[in-house]
Amino acid sequence: MKHLIVGLGNIGPEYEGTRHNIGFRILDAFAKASNISFQDKRYGFVAHMRVKNQELVLLKPSTYMNLSGNAVRYWLQQEKIPIENLLVLVDDLSLPVGTIRMRQGGSDAGHNGLKHIAQMLGTQAYNRLKFGIGNDFPRGGQVDFVLGHFSPEDEKIVDEKALVACDAIKAYALSGMQFAMCNYNGK
Prior knowledge:
With 187 residues, the chain is an alpha/beta fold. It contains 6 helices and 7 strands; from the N terminus they run E-H-E-E-E-H-E-E-H-E-H-H-H.
């Protein structure tokens, strides 16, 4: 069985290490732990790997966050992957730093990357791994916050929890979304 695992983020050095790029960061940790590398392909950076009998296509879109749906739609079609085998890794302001919440479908909660994916796929019924980035910002400061960097204290949490997110991806691929949700939500 084949799965598309998409880490959301923005390309370019000015966005490296920002909270909004946590999807890229998790996929980079996953690829590093698996000793694979990404190739620059159409609409994104792509890597292929196997986890036991599951084939995973890892995608870091090069379309910028607000146009992520273009890359997701293209790679689902290119690899002939059904939407139920899509997992999107995304930052979440409503969760404490490092908290993982896996969901089957749901709203975009104001996240422009998720909004564009739903628009391009015609549905919000796809799997997500939400990674908490906290919400310690003043009124009107959301954009600066998500495009800012983690504090040194939060960096330690993120490094540790990114590895837990990698385990959650494997659990999803091997045992399904229900199993992954039961075993990784809130971790």
